[in-house]
């Protein structure tokens, strides 16, 4: 680890924590506008039904009520748009039914908004909502994806068999994969579920709409990871407001995990209502509303087959997945099981032939979209589980089997059979590192000691690949994205030498204000506290695409680097003039422009002042001022990778799993702030273990959520987690961005579920258990042990 | 939540009087009641706060019994020297209810009056054969619990305290529901002068109950091994939900009974 005190490589303390930890954060709900009204959403209590009566006259006449909105108010207004088009195996576009702001005659999931009461107080709005005369004729609900595909009950008339798309990739490989599997020496098959999750950011969603009639200006304050994307989607596709009349502000945001990427109906609602009522309108989700209106994550059901030759080389992989879309297409939902999932199925391996078929299905459930990792955890989980199972079936070490099939360091850049090209990596290094960290050699003794206490101990490994950055634009455009996915940054040097950085990335827990300042400090040789990072307001920052896909440093940071490079280049010209030297003779180091080989120098601050007070200035050649903007569109995704190990103890009497140790050896390329990277791994691993052991968003046959609050939805707690042992010393820098960085935000959540499940299966192998679907709750583990011993007894 | 009056009586008599108003409801910590009201699932005319009545707060540890007054918080029971010495199993149980916020608000009277089928206290009250004291009478534990959320309390009757006999040995073993951390199955096992009692919470659709077979086996041989030889109670009538099917809960009754005996 780099021990220097500031700049790139330093574990600078997070400057934003001062306000977060002292209650001075400014979240959307902390904002109150003069005269604001409060919106209360009336939501469907049934999963599927026809609205047969909706009479709001009594509610509209109730005390304090400004207006009760129903779908009638939104005639001529667009639905919530989908930002990604998938083309199916027959070349047809996906089914894209309208997602109205408020239900138009039909409700399609519990929580689907039907009407909104806007009143002077929230209590008045809730009181009035009870006066709405609403009748719904309940229809049978489709919940299970395979049942849904049989047709009979359609979530949308446009998709009678509930199929959104049927996608094949790589279609040309299908026959070859079938043939390779047919003639393989060994085929390992695994059917598994990637369980549905509720994102649960600490801060529930909130939106405030405001309208200034004098200037015809709309403002939306919202809990978003990407305010410009919201402005584009809502302005252009829903409400028809041009960019210059619409400002979107995403202030401090208390966690996103993906679910705050999307444009939601509530945002369009408050913006629309504020103009209609000519007063600010505020809506804050209750936690219960978050459970039924925030886009959820995962929910894949998959059959995966891995073919091996007689020497245990992987020869082919076939993956058939059903992906739940929920009742409507959320903003990026269609791309998650396809381009963020199918393209990662090579993993870290040389598997030459890969084919996947993904059927995306509509059901009467809450919409599903990206959640920390988004598609890549699903790919990694099935791959790392099936490889572990293959090793067990073949009686070989799961570590050795992985290493035998790894792409080797001298094979980069590596063209996978699933479109993407990995630029760099050293998977043997991270695997070896994690094996060492996990003390594999001492495991047998630990297992024996656990056995003496009646516990079953297991050690599981996994290795992941990730594709981060979600760019270049040309590539994602070819794959169906309806947006560019670059990032933008403006660097403004102020006259006295301090610097304001305006970034299109959005920080909602990542610590950008610290990390980005470190980068600029390092490049300009000025202290970090001279640098301010501004984000989250479309009126202040250049058009940016926001934060998701572990992209902020790799893409947003690169845009900042490009702008700083332009600043330095211009400053060098000014310095050459002031120092009466040739530009070629000017060096820039530690904040000083020097004439090489002399002691003549100008500090960065002096150049800044000269740029703004251009008395003795090359005005003929250079404009005054020192401010530069860059848009950075990378050449490729970045590909972090890493080896994870998890050690568990199972209590066979109760099925309780205790996580005894967790080790992470990651290759994130270069690190800017190792402490923040460690924090990201801790958080990611906690979410991964949460998915694998605790969290489960399920619906009963009628579509009622069975875990609609924290009484039943089990979040990981501190006591569920071991201290995570983290190493990021294996570094193969990214070859195509200026910082050589890869991104670390999602890795923990991607690599940990398979490591955890592999560990539990390792512990239970002696009881004949070969697989348990996530989450591995005490009951699930007990039933697996119980079932396996019952089978053994027969 | 809907609007209601907040009443803060200074005596039990005043509280009883205030509760005679139509739709008035007692609040004694509110750890179940407040979330219910926030969801607009109840509409009391008034909440009568019992926690400010001096007579209802405190613990008296005697030579053969411990009295915990009705509005005493779980945290106070958990930290009480006398309880820790006389009935360590009870102090430990109180120390693991909910989280610190719940333990510093929730009270024994509130818990016992509500009789949530997954609450911890009912297991101790029934398992120790305690007596529930009210503003008008004393009710033996065996007569008090009458099924999920159902007790022998009359309309407007207030739990003023619970008197626990001091056992020779006792302990509570709780298997937590992973989300709520209520008892998915909790067992209070006690060896008393009058015999052995085993009470189970969290498992049954009929609320807290005594496991007679285990009591019989432990009466002749107070040891985990005595439980080991028993069949688990019937799964029929056990609660089934996403966290535990009836057969899993029935199995846990046996495992937790063993562990309670071992810990006592």
UniProtKB/TrEMBL annotation, chain A:
Tagged with keyword Oxidoreductase: yes
Keywords (A to Z) from UniProt: Molybdenum, Oxidoreductase
Domain Aldehyde oxidase/xanthine dehydrogenase a/b hammerhead positions: 22-140
Top-level taxonomic group: Bacteria
A GO MF term: oxidoreductase activity
Protein name per UniProt: Xanthine dehydrogenase, molybdenum binding subunit apoprotein
Native species: Rubrimonas cliftonensis
Lineage: Bacteria, Pseudomonadati, Pseudomonadota, Alphaproteobacteria, Rhodobacterales
UniProtKB/TrEMBL annotation, chain B:
Residue ranges constituting the FAD-binding PCMH-type domain according to the UniProt record: 1-169
Sorted UniProt keywords: FAD, Flavoprotein, Oxidoreductase
Keyword Calcium: no
Gene3D superfamilies assigned: 3.30.465.10, CO dehydrogenase flavoprotein, C-terminal domain, Uridine Diphospho-n-acetylenolpyruvylglucosamine Reductase, domain 2
GO MF terms, alphabetically ordered: FAD binding; oxidoreductase activity
InterPro entries: CO_DH_flav_C, CO_DH_flav_C_dom_sf, Diverse_Substr_Oxidored, FAD-bd_PCMH, FAD-bd_PCMH-like_sf, FAD-bd_PCMH_sub1, FAD-bd_PCMH_sub2, Mopterin_DH_FAD-bd
PROSITE patterns: FAD_PCMH
Protein name per UniProt: Carbon-monoxide dehydrogenase medium subunit
């Amino acid at each position: 680890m780099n021990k220097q005190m500031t700049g790139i490589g330093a574990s600078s303390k997070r400057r934003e924590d001062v306000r977060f930890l002292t209650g001075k954060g400014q979240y959307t709900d902390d904002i109150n506008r003069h005269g604001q009204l409060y919106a209360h959403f009336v939501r469907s209590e049934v999963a599927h039904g026809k609205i047969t009566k909706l009479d709001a006259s009594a509610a509209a006449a109730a005390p304090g009520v400004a207006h009760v909105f129903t779908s009638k108010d939104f005639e001529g207004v667009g639905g919530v748009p989908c930002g990604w088009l998938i083309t199916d195996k027959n070349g047809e576009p996906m089914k894209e039914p309208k997602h109205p702001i408020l239900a138009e005659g039909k409700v399609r999931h519990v929580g689907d908004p039907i009407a909104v009461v806007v009143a002077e107080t929230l209590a008045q709005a809730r009181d009035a909502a009870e006066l709405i005369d609403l009748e719904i004729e309940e229809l049978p609900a489709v919940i299970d994806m395979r049942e849904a595909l049989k047709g009979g009950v359609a979530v949308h008339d446009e998709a009678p068999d509930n199929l959104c798309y049927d996608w094949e990739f790589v279609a040309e490989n299908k026959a070859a994969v079938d043939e390779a599997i047919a003639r393989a020496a060994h085929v390992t098959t695994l059917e598994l579920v990637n369980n549905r999750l509720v994102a649960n950011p600490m801060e529930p969603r909130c939106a405030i709409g405001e309208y200034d009639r004098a200037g015809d200006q709309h403002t939306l304050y919202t809990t978003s990871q990407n305010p410009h994307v919201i402005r584009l989607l809502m302005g252009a596709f829903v409400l028809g407001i041009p960019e210059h009349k619409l400002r979107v502000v995403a202030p401090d945001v208390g966690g996103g995990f993906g679910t705050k990427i999307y444009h939601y109906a509530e945002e369009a609602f408050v913006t629309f209502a504020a103009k209609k009522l000519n007063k600010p309108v505020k809506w804050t989700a209750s936690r219960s509303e978050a459970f039924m209106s925030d886009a959820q994550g995962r929910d894949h059901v998959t059959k995966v087959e891995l073919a091996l030759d007689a020497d245990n080389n992987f020869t082919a992989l076939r993956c058939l997945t059903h992906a739940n879309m929920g009742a409507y297409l959320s903003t990026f939902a269609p791309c998650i099981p396809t381009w963020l999932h199918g393209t990662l199925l090579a993993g870290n391996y040389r598997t030459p032939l890969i084919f996947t078929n993904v059927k995306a299905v509509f059901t009467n459930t809450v919409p599903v979209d990206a959640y920390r990792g988004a598609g890549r955890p699903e790919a990694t989980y099935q791959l790392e589980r099936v490889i572990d199972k293959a090793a067990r079936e073949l009686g070989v070490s799961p570590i050795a089997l992985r290493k035998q099939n790894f792409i080797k360091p001298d094979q980069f850049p590596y063209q996978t059979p699933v479109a993407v090209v990995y630029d760099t990596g050293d998977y043997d290094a991270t695997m070896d590192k994690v094996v060492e960290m996990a003390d594999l050699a001492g495991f047998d003794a630990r297992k024996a000691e656990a056995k003496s206490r009646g516990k079953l101990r297991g050690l599981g490994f996994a290795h992941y690949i990730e594709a981060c950055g979600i760019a270049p634009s040309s590539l994602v455009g070819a794959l169906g994205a309806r947006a560019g996915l670059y990032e933008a940054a403006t660097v403004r040097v102020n006259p006295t030498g301090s610097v304001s950085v305006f970034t299109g990335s959005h920080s909602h827990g990542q610590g950008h204000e610290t990390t980005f300042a470190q980068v600029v400090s390092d490049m300009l040789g000025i202290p970090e506290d001279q640098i301010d990072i501004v984000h989250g307001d479309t009126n202040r920052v250049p058009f940016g695409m926001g934060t998701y896909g572990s992209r902020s440093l790799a893409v947003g940071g690169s845009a900042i680097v490009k702008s700083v490079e332009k600043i330095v280049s211009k400053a060098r010209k000014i310095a050459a003039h002031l120092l009466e030297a040739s530009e070629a003779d000017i060096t820039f180091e530690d904040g000083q422009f020097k004439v090489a080989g002399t002691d003549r120098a100008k500090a960065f601050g002096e150049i800044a002042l000269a740029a703004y007070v251009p008395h003795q200035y090359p005005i003929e050649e250079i404009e005054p001022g020192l401010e530069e903007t860059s848009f950075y569109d990378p050449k490729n995704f970045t590909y972090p990778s890493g080896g994870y190990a998890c050690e568990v103890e199972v209590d066979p009497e109760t099925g309780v799993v205790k996580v005894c140790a967790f080790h992470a050896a990651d290759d994130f390329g270069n690190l800017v702030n190792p402490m923040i990277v460690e924090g990201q791994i801790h958080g990611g691993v906690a979410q991964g273990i949460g998915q694998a052991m605790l969290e489960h968003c399920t619906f009963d046959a009628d579509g009622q959520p069975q875990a609609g609050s924290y009484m039943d939805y089990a979040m990981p707690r501190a006591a569920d987690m071991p201290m995570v042992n983290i190493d990021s010393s294996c570094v193969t820098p990214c070859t195509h961005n200026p910082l050589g960085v890869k991104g670390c935000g999602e890795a923990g959540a991607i690599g940990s579920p398979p490591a955890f499940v592999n560990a539990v299966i390792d512990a239970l192998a002696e009881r004949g258990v070969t697989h348990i679907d996530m989450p591995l709750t005490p009951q699930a583990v007990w039933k697996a042990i119980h079932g396996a011993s019952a089978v053994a007894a027969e | 939540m809907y609007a209601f009056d907040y009443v803060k009586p200074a005596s039990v008599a005043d509280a009883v009087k205030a509760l005679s108003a139509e739709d008035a409801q007692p609040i004694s910590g509110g750890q179940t009641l407040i979330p219910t009201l926030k969801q607009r699932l109840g509409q009391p005319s008034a909440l009568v706060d019992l926690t400010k009545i001096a007579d209802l707060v405190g613990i008296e540890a005697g030579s053969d019994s411990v009295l915990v007054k009705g509005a005493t918080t779980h945290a106070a029971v958990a930290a009480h020297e006398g309880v820790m010495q006389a009935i360590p199993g009870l102090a430990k149980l109180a120390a693991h209810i909910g989280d610190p916020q719940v333990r510093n608000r929730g009270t024994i009277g509130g818990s016992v009056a509500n009789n949530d089928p997954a609450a911890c206290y009912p297991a101790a009250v029934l398992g120790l054969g305690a007596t529930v004291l009210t503003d008008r009478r004393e009710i033996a534990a065996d007569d008090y619990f009458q099924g999920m959320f159902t007790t022998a309390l009359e309309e407007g009757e207030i739990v003023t305290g619970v008197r626990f006999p001091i056992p020779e040995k006792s302990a509570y073993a709780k298997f937590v529901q992973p989300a709520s951390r209520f008892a998915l199955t909790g067992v209070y096992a006690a060896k008393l002068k009058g015999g052995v009692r085993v009470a189970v919470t969290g498992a049954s659709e009929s609320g807290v109950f005594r496991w007679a077979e285990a009591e019989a086996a432990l009466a002749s041989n107070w040891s985990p091994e005595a439980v080991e030889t028993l069949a688990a109670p019937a799964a029929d009538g056990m609660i089934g939900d996403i966290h535990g099917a009836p057969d899993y809960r029935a199995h846990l009754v046996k495992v937790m009974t063993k562990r309670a005996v071992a810990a006592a």
